[in-house]
Amino acid sequence: MCGIIIAHDISVAGTMSLSSILSADAIDSALKDCQAPDSFNPKKFFQLCGLTKKSPQDVKNVFNILDNDASGFIEEEELKFFLQRFSPGARVLTDKETKAFLSAADDDSDGKIGADAEFLGRCGIVDKPSKNWPLTANGEVDPALKALEARQDEVLKRLYELKATIDGLAKTVTTPDADLDATTLSRGPAESVFKGTADLDSLLGKDLGALRDIVINANPACPPLSLLVLHSLLCQRYQVLSSVHVHSSVSSVPPPLLSCLGPRHKDSYARQCFQLGFTLIWKDVPKLEMKFNTQSMCPIEGEANVARFLFRLLGAEPQDPVAATQMDCWIDTAVFQLAEGGSKERAAVLRSLNAALGRSPWLLGEEFSLADIVSACCVLRAGQSTSAPANVQRWLKSCQNLGHFDFVYPLLQ
């Protein structure tokens, strides 16, 4: 009983001193907020009582009032009566609250809270240092130490960039199936016809420090025109590092195929500056094949399937199931009947295209889509652009005007 009376007597003296620093209303508001057992939150309490807005010296004065035995530290036993130091009628902290308070503010794990960075940091007056850094007279971390930490962060950043560059050089040397690096390229950003907001992290998951590499093996006798268009669109959405290689199975490659992805980028050596790698390898293969992060994904075969994958990276797929199905139907029709079919099949597809394009500017209505990209490229590859019906010719001109087919037309000559 005597111990409780003594604690209350000390609290009365402490309250008078605290009232000269903190307003009575603020103290009352803070105490009411944590009346229920296990509801005490140190950070919120200091905010409500106004201590977070006080100077470091005022906070130290409060600490001295709370330091019951004037030891220079607040021990766990003193923390139990923490609220009573603000008002004699306040409750005692529970064991759970006391231990949580001590754990949050005891940076050096010595079982007590010091008057330096530990208490100042808990009150929000200074940032809690990650180590027991010395403070200046006004309670702030020494500026020289802050500068040292900033320099360390800069060194770590430069080391990360160096590692990314070295990894990039290693990948360039070991690019699958490539014997000759014809050129390393990248196209600058431009306004895209697709307004989606998807990014690679949301589509593929985060992969910190790694450049996501797309590697495509294609036969130069049948250039994948639709993939060149999609490459142009990807360059408008992301920072793309593009490379053209030639495999030893190919004796010669026409110059336009070596520059089909655009001019060389001045920062091509700094892979850490890019989000996506796009490598095109001209190789004597029976069917186009794409590898993406080869260790975690099986190859994708066929231009249409690769085109679908690349289009998904744009985040522009139709959300309507009917429109998505129509898009797939047009793609399959263009590939299997227009590009690979006979003259009768081609004529039938051109009639279907002409009818659809007589009702809307694009194959899926008002929006340009993958169906337009693949179908237009198949018409161009089949050599039907000049003899196609009027609506198809108008549509091809609209596709060309978008600018995404700039690297396609030189390959048709």
Automatic annotation (TrEMBL):
Family annotation (Pfam families): EF-hand_7, GST_C, Thioredoxin_16
Keyword Cell wall biogenesis/degradation: no
Example of a GO MF term: calcium ion binding
GO biological process: translation
GO CC annotation: aminoacyl-tRNA synthetase multienzyme complex; cytosol; nucleus
Residue stretches in coiled coil: none
Protein keywords: Calcium, Cytoplasm, Metal-binding, Muscle protein, Nucleus, Protein biosynthesis, Repeat
Source species taxonomy: Eukaryota, Metazoa, Chordata, Craniata, Vertebrata
Protein biosynthesis keyword on record: yes
Record domain EF-hand: where: 54-89
Record's subcellular location: Cytoplasm, Cytosol; Nucleus
Family, per entry: Belongs to the parvalbumin family.
Main location (coarse class): cytoplasm
InterPro entries the record matches: AIMP2, AIMP2_thioredoxin, EF-hand-dom_pair, EF_Hand_1_Ca_BS, EF_hand_dom, Glutathione-S-Trfase_C_sf, GST_C
Protein name, per record: Aminoacyl tRNA synthase complex-interacting multifunctional 2-like isoform X2
